[in-house]
Structure formats: C-alpha cells, structure tokens
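Sequence and fold:
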Amino acid sequence: MAIDIVQYLNEKQSEAGRAKKSGLPFITISRETGCHSKMIAQLLQKEIQKLSNQKWRIVSKETIFEAVKDLEINPQQLNYVLDAAQKSHLEEILMAFGESRYKSYKAVRKTLMDTIGSFAAEGNNIIIGRAGALITAGIRAGIHIRLTASRDWRTKSISTQQGISQDAAALFVDETDEKRRKLFKDFSGNDPDNSLFDLVINNERISDEDAVQLIIKLMEQRKCW
C-alpha cells in the first residue's frame, strides 16, 4: 500500500521551515534510464559552486547508504526498497522472525524518505533519483528537474556506458524504467507525473552542457544566490 504522501509532507514541516529560513536551495534530478543524470549533476555542481562560491554536494544512492550506515538497517533491505521490489508472504515472515537488523519494509521506506528530506532541508544538495521530487515536494526551496529521451537513444547510451550489446541495453532500460516507476508509485500511489517538475529536459536533443545552463538560468531567476 502506498504511503499517505500528504500526511508525510505535513510531518516534514519543520524541515521545510528550516530550509525556507536558511534560504538554501536544493535540486532534485529525476531521469529516465540512460539519461545523463550523473554527468549533468557533476557539471552542475561545478558551475553552481563557481557562481555562488558555496559548496554543493551530490546526493546519490551511495550517499544515502553512507548516511544510514549507523542505523540498524540491512543494506539488502534498503536495496529492496530502492528497487521497489514486491514482497512475498514468506519473505515478510522471515523479516519478522529473522535477524534483528531486519526492519519492516514500511520502516525502511520511512527512513529513506526522512533521509532524503533531511538532505533537502539542509540545502545546497543535488539529489539524484530516489523519488526525490515527490518526497521533497512540500519544501519550496527545491528546484525539480526531469531528464527524458527516446527509448532508442537511451538504449544506445546505456550500451555505450556499460559496454554491452544493444539487446542487453534495451532489456536493462525497460527493467530499470519499470523499477523506478514502481518506486514512485510505491511512495505516491500514482505513476510519475511531469507536473511535479519545474523543468523537463529532453537529453536527446539538448546537450549536457546546455542542460546545465538551463538549470542555472532557472536558479538565477529564483535568486538562489
């Protein structure tokens, strides 16, 4: 069952208030599989730091794992949530009666949301994926970006990036797209909706460098520095 996202956002008002008071912006980057989210984030980080003279951090899956490493959460279960895998009845029983580090799926999911919400409230972070735009929708300091492209272009991109065949790349694109759709739906109860985003960029038609400049222009209009 999807969480009550409205209830969650109401609970995060303290974090949102801190972000508003500090005036520190943050960015979320949502992407279809094969789009250049990491490359754009890295270029964007350098450009923002040059223009604002402030340090910015890229928040990736690895960053989230590092942030929760001191909590009693099994890394496999966190991966399970991030991949929006479907739980079987047997696995739920094993989690309930197995090793103490296993927490409920709902608890791990809330921890993930709290962690991403904290990064957003902190400001000066570029959050890649993890339903970031949805989780942080109640914090006005955020700028939410969506990267998209045709399936053929994204398949070629994955084939080049990973050094695999076109057929293998196409399968990876389809499977990963579906996992990300499930993750979003798991949090919201709905499929991804472009109305969440401030800027949707066609990565097939717009270069990584030009994409960064579009985001920078939007940040300047929002008076982010």
